[in-house]
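Researcher: Next entry in the queue.
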Amino acid sequence: METRTPFNPDLGPRAAPAEDTAEDTAADASGTGLRKRWKRWKAPTPLRVAGWAAFVTAGTVALGWAAQHWAATGLPLEPLPGSPWPYLTAWAVLGFAACLLLRGATRRMELEDRGEVIGVPLFCAIRVSLAHRPELELLYAYGALALVLAALALAGWELRHRRRGARTDTPAAG
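Model: Structure for this entry, 174 residues:
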C-alpha cells in the first residue's frame, strides 16, 4: 500500500518516502519540514490582480457609502436625497476597471501603495457624485472615455518602451 503526501500543483502527487530520516523528523518537529519540501501554492497572476482590484474597489465603495451617511450630518458636500446605490455601482464598475489598468501600467515597477493611487481619487469622485447627482449615463460615458484614453496612453507608452528597449539592447559598436 502506497501512502501519498499532499498534492503540489507544480510536482503533482508523489509517493511519500519509505522512512523519515533524522533530519526530516527534526525539521517536522520544528514546523519547517513541509515548507522546505513543498512550495506554497500561489494563485495565478490574473486571479491575484483581479482579487486586488476587487478588494480595493470594494473597500473604497464601502468608505463612500459610509461617508454618504456620515456627510448627512452637515459636512461639506452633503449628499442629495435618494438612493446612493446606482452611483456606488457606477463607481464600483469604473473603479475596478481603473484598478486593473493601474496594475497593467505598473506591472514592471516597484510601486508601494497602489491602492491609494486609485482609492483616494475614487473616494473623492464618489463624494462629489453623491453631492451633485449627475445623470448616470453621463457618469458612465465620461468614466469610460477616461478609461479608454488611459488605456490608449498605456498602449502607446508600452509600444514606445518596446521600441526603445529593442534599440538599446544591441551592443554599441566601438
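Model: The mean pLDDT is 78.
Researcher: Noted, moving on.
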